[in-house]
Design brief:
186 residues; mainly alpha; two-stranded antiparallel ribbon; 7 helices; 2 strands; 2% strand; rod-shaped
């Protein structure tokens, strides 16, 4: 079909308005010049814009959660110092509070560094190694506090010398009861 001045080519067809020549007919309808039609270029532009926006949002998410995880790790370090002090002073209630705080901070740091964004960040060739290290450290800290530190602090009350010695005799049952927890802590 030939387009005339009375019936111009639709604007959306090839991305350029119809040009009317001297004879009153529309210009040739070919896109041999290699330029994509306008709707395709516009769609590609939007796809590129959305992709860049998602990439930036993902990077911001990783940075924000990394900073929050760092804050939780620093708080866990302070809880370790408080736990050491409480154990050295034989203050069991303070040791329990410190171990609970340590477990909460370690779990929070681990939770902040898991999920699809962190997994994807760990797969990147230029940023993957630090992300994998952070994820591994927080996971191990969470596991260590929940499976070793807290059970050992819980045993401390039953393994005090006053609880083990009764009228000059050593009570072995508290040691036998504590054996599985001590074996897991090795």
């Amino acid at each position: 079909m030939r387009f005339t001045a009375d019936h111009p080519r639709p604007r959306w067809q090839f991305g350029r308005p119809a040009a009317v020549g001297e004879s009153g007919t529309a210009a040739a309808d070919s896109d041999r010049d290699g330029v994509a039609p306008r709707p395709v270029r516009t769609a590609l532009r939007y796809v590129l814009l959305v992709s860049v926006a998602l990439l930036l949002a993902g990077c911001l998410w990783l940075v924000a959660t990394a900073l929050l995880a760092r804050h939780q790790a620093q708080a866990a370090r302070q809880s370790v110092a408080a736990l050491r002090t409480a154990i050295a002073q034989a203050d069991l209630p303070a040791a329990r509070r410190a171990s609970d705080q340590l477990a909460a901070h370690a779990h929070s740091a681990h939770r902040l560094t898991t999920g699809p964004a962190w997994w994807l960040g760990a797969q990147l060739p230029w940023a993957g190694r630090p992300a994998r290290s952070i994820r591994g450290c927080t996971a191990q800290a969470d596991q260590l506090t929940s499976t070793v530190v807290q059970p050992l602090v819980g045993l401390a009350d039953g393994l005090r010398p006053a609880a083990l010695i009764d009228s000059g005799r050593v009570r072995l049952q508290p040691l036998i009861d504590a054996a599985p927890v001590l074996r897991r802590a090795q």
